[in-house]
Design brief:
The complex is a heterodimer. By secondary structure, chain A is an all-alpha fold. Chain A has helices at residues 2-12, 33-54, 71-76, 79-113, 118-126, 133-144, 149-154, 162-186, 191-198, 203-231, 235-240, 248-257, 262-293, and strands at 57-60, 63-65. In chain A, helix 9 runs antiparallel to helix 10 and helix 10 runs antiparallel to helix 13. Chain A starts with a helix and ends with a helix. Chain B has 2 domains: 2-189 and 327-387, D-Maltodextrin-Binding Protein, domain 2 (3-Layer(aba) Sandwich), CATH 3.40.190.10; 196-323 and 394-417, Periplasmic binding protein-like II (D-Maltodextrin-Binding Protein, domain 2, 3-Layer(aba) Sandwich), CATH 3.40.190.10. In chain B, helix 9 packs across helix 10 (236-246), helix 10 packs across helix 11 (256-268) and helix 10 packs across helix 19 (402-417). The chains are: A mainly alpha, B alpha/beta. The interface between A and B is large, with 40 and 41 residues.
Chain lengths: 295, 418
């Protein structure tokens, strides 16, 4: 400590003309203006419009009276829409758990067992992401088809049900989960496991006490990364449920596209965002905890 | 002229042709709606521009001697008689809904060729997309092709130009019973492009009883759902009014009692419905995956043809009531080239053009002189030439008011969630 304090004096005193070394930001802050402007115009702007819409009253087709009308939010809390919110959150939660169950072993295998082909495996996980989301979902429709191999030969006929939606969610969001978990498993110091084994821990306790704990932040990040877009999902329930298991996103779509009721559609959107922010807050708490104790 | 062209470049993207239709629609609406403040300004500005352009072109020829004659014709509020044909026509329509030769031949007509008329099209994939575009200030279009419910809505909003019948002499060829439908009672704002009906089909190897009406259809759903996939056409404006009609009620009702009756009816047959879809049902039905389903007559015609080898599809034009729908030629109130727009509609009303069109899109144009020129295989197919005895009892489904649309949407959401 004392040495560190004396350092600057020693460096500065002999050569005052020399440029002082500083770790303060080197460029003026206003250079971020373009980014901030973009953020304001394309993110905060639409958000403000959405809030204004949700508090407006519908006058006729395509015309709104702006004001402070909270009746739309009252309608959101009726049993029909609460039930749809409930099913969306439950399905997203189930989808997330399934994604964890499928994704964690894959990430673990890639990080622990592969060396030469690690990057190839990573590539294979990511490659489907280069295809359009829509096409991937349609591809799944072929696999799950009631007359397809899966249904005919294995008797798994789940097309147009909630199970098809769950399969679609896991399939489409898996890479988003594997990547952060893989990253945290990559950083793992596997000698800790050896040490645990040397000290007499069984493989599973070593996994539970060390690997799982150290990678938990990655798992939480990955889970949230898939959970949030899952709750906003529109395409998967639309294509795979055949109208039988639709999410809030589909109801919002109907309100905007068919009923032309922007106020109610906006109120639904904002309610969904509010519901999601609860989970984001939980995440922030977990994430800061990680920083506090060190990963 | 130049001014008009630059206007077009701004408002009508030339290369836009939706491939992934509904994704595109989503983007359109997300981008279209929030502009409502600017949209108002834009509309005003464009109106000024159009007005200025109109004045400058009409000042010299019209001032000579036409005030009296145009005064006489001004019942239609748009005395275009005597105004010169503009040099451009901007069409906003559904993709692949007109024979390509209809466009090329139009620009080669004597008057159009002399005016050096150029023609440009952009496309939409749903009425919602069209309405969103117009609400967002799309003012450069001369011709739009709204379905009946959108026509009624646009009339309510004063967004359509009253047609100048003097410029549409070929209107005489149309079946007079299609001139003043419920969605345009005065007949001043639309000319029918073609029409169709909503009907149903079933696999006759599986469904063996006779089902004749929409009510029969709904009652058959729970009985046969165990034997294969059943399908309803999606959308609140389809599901709820069709159920109302099956019950013998007015599809355009605003009565709460009617709505609750339709709702409990729909919920009672919910378990009989495997899917609610209107985008993929043709291919699925041709592949033999649907055993009982609703559809539009042109689509069902394709399905029956597609299953001709198996011969297991029966198409039923419902007795009692069902939906009749129509697509229409309309001119937006802000159209920059109204005379050319009228010339276009009049061209489409030429029997020869109507024949070409019907051979292309397979939907009926109510024009006897054109129908008689069609090949018998098409003319005598009831799935194309739906007998009047049926359609006389059919109803147009309209967006009566935001309240009615909201009530339908809520029943629809509840139906789907059940």
């Amino acid at each position: 400590m004392t040495v560190a304090e004396k350092e600057p004096e020693v460096a500065a005193a002999p050569a005052a003309t020399r440029r002082r070394r500083s770790f303060r930001p080197r460029y003026p802050a206003w250079l971020t203006a373009p980014s901030l402007l973009y953020y304001t115009v394309f993110f905060l702007g639409p958000m403000a419009i959405l809030v204004a819409f949700s508090l407006a009253a519908q006058q006729g087709f395509g015309s709104l009276r702006y004001g402070f009308d909270t009746s739309q939010y009252g309608q959101v809390t009726t049993s029909l829409y609460l039930a749809i919110f409930g099913r969306t959150l439950i399905m997203a939660a189930v989808g997330t758990l399934l994604t964890v169950a499928v994704g964690y072993p894959v990430a673990y295998w890639m990080a622990r067992y592969l060396s030469t082909y690690k990057m190839l495996a990573l590539l294979i996980v990511v490659v489907p992401f280069w295809t359009s989301f829509l096409i991937r979902t349609y591809a799944l429709k072929i696999i799950l088809d009631p007359n397809g191999y899966l249904a005919r030969d294995l008797g798994i006929s789940i097309m147009y049900t909630r199970y098809a939606v769950a399969v679609g969610l896991v399939y489409n969001y898996l890479p988003l989960f594997i990547l952060p978990v893989f990253a945290s498993l990559e950083r793992m110091d596997w000698t800790l496991i050896e040490a645990a084994a040397d000290l007499g821990a069984r493989p599973f306790s070593a996994f539970r006490e060390i690997t799982l704990r150290l990678t938990l932040p990655g798992v939480v990040t990955g889970a949230l990364l898939v959970f949030i877009p899952m709750t906003g999902e529109y395409i998967i329930p639309n294509i795979l449920s055949g109208g039988n298991y639709e999410f809030v996103g589909n109801v919002i779509g109907d309100q905007f596209n068919q009923a032309q009721n922007q106020p109610f559609g906006s109120a639904l959107s904002i309610s969904l965002m509010l519901a999601l922010s609860v989970f984001v807050i939980i995440y922030i708490l977990v994430a800061t905890k990680e920083e506090r104790f060190g990963a | 002229m130049n001014r008009d062209d630059s206007q077009l470049n701004i408002l009508a993207p030339r290369s836009l042709r939706p491939k992934l239709d509904y994704l595109h629609r989503e983007v359109q609406q997300a981008a279209g709606r929030p502009l409502s403040r600017r949209q108002a300004l834009g509309l005003g500005g464009m109106a000024l521009l159009a007005g200025a352009a109109g004045c400058s072109t009409s000042a010299s020829p019209a001032s000579s001697g036409s005030p009296a004659s145009s005064g006489a014709a001004s019942a239609s509020a748009n005395p275009l008689t005597g105004k010169p044909l503009e040099g451009h026509l901007e069409i906003y329509t559904w993709s692949e809904y007109s024979d390509p030769s209809t466009f090329t031949k139009f620009t080669k007509l004597p008057a159009e060729a002399k005016a050096g008329l150029t023609l440009h099209q952009t496309f939409y994939s749903s009425n919602d997309e069209l309405l969103a575009k117009l609400h967002a200030g799309g003012t450069s279009y001369d011709i739009i092709v709204p379905s009946q419910n959108a026509v009624a809505e646009l009339i309510q909003e004063n967004s359509l130009m009253a047609l100048d019948k003097a410029l549409l002499p070929n209107l005489k060829y149309l079946d007079p019973s299609f001139l003043k439908p419920s969605y345009d009672p005065t007949g001043d704002y639309h000319v029918i492009k073609d029409f169709g009906i909503t009907m149903f089909f079933f696999n006759n190897k599986i469904v063996t009883e006779e089902i004749k009406t929409m009510h029969d259809f709904y009652m058959a759903l729970p009985k046969y759902v165990g034997k294969g996939r059943t399908n309803l056409l999606d959308g609140a404006e389809e599901v709820v009014p069709l159920a109302l009609m099956a019950l013998g009620l007015d599809p355009n009702t605003s009565s709460q009692a009617d709505f609750s009756q339709a709702k409990s009816f729909l919920l009672s047959i919910r378990k009989g419905v495997t899917t609610i879809d209107a985008s993929a049902y043709i291919d699925d039905a041709i592949a033999g995956k649907i055993i009982l389903g609703q559809g539009w007559n042109g689509d069902i015609r394709r399905i029956v043809q597609g299953r001709a080898k198996q011969g297991d599809m029966t198409a039923v034009i419902p007795g009692a009531a069902s939906e009749i729908w129509a697509d229409n030629w309309c001119i937006p109130a802000s159209a920059p080239h109204p005379v050319a727009a009228h010339a276009w509609i009049n061209w489409l009303l030429t029997p020869g053009t109507a024949v070409t069109e019907m051979n292309y899109h397979d939907y009926k144009i109510p024009m006897d002189s054109a129908l008689s020129q069609l090949a018998p295989s098409l003319r005598n197919d009831p799935l194309f030439n739906v007998p009047k005895s049926y359609t006389d009892n059919y109803h147009y489904i309209l967006n009566v008011s935001p309240q009615v649309v909201e009530a339908r949407t809520q029943i629809y959401s509840e139906f789907k969630a059940a």
